[in-house]
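Q: Here's a chain of 318 amino acids. Please give me its 3D structure as tokens.
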Amino acid sequence: TVDGKLTFVDHACGHDSHMAWWIGTAKALVTMKAQWHGTLVMVDQPAEEVVSGAKAMLDDGLYTRFPKPDFAFGAHVGSSPTGQVSVKQGATTSASDSIVITFHGQGAHGSMPDKSIDPIVMGARFVEDVQTVISRQKDPQKFGVVTVGSFHAGTVGNIIPDTAQLALSLRSYEPGVRKLLLDGVGDTARAVAQMSHAPAPDVVRIHGTAPVINDPALAAKAAGMLEQALGKEHVALVPTSEPGWTASEDFSEYTAAGVAQTTFFSVGGYDPAVLAKYKAEGKPVPVNHSPFFAPDPQPSIRTGMEVLTLALLMVAGN
């Protein structure tokens, strides 16, 4: 129940697959203990979806209560074909910032708009104007996205409400672009309120995380190893010069905490026949967070297990 209303929820991002291959990898490595040496730390991290779980674990003493590893590996399922693995050098996922903006107006009856300061008008103006931060302030050759994913205001059609609340998601790769987006969102919100002779809005950054940066040398080594194990046709090494994935992941917090070499993999989740059907019908493939996102469990879990197990053997094998 959200705000007194029954709300249907579907967390469609593949984390059930992740936990299945996490457990499978742990079991495989324990079984193969004679083939590698060192200390294995399996991080069972919560709250990846709000990019805050890794920091919470670190703040709780992850690397003081337990050993800090020399290498860290992670993986995420996606909508590419099962059996396919992508390894990105350099910037791999985007930075993420979650912003909530509350515009404060003055309520009135819908027949007397001149007696109001309409926060819905402010919100609507903001939704349109904030995109000029992308189209007119950001370098067009650099990645940056501002998404307004939620707009809540009012209860009935004939009453102008007092407030409007918008929730935003900002994505970027570079620190300079990240700052530009954060500053631009705040500046635009305050300017919109000023135009309406309204109080300054509340602009609150809820949470955020830096981009995941794969160690280029380790990523290349991992891709070469996986090519030998899975076949060259099943592995893609994406160079630093090419863009990464636009989604975000707080795996970056482990690098910030001092883990020297990290690599994050993307694992395919869709049966190629299913992908072919979508293509033949001219329909977009459901991606992560679509209610129709449906990875094929067995092959995607098996590949995830293989990737993480082989990655550890690559750096710790006898």
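Q: Can you summarize the key feature?
A: The radius of gyration is 23 Å.
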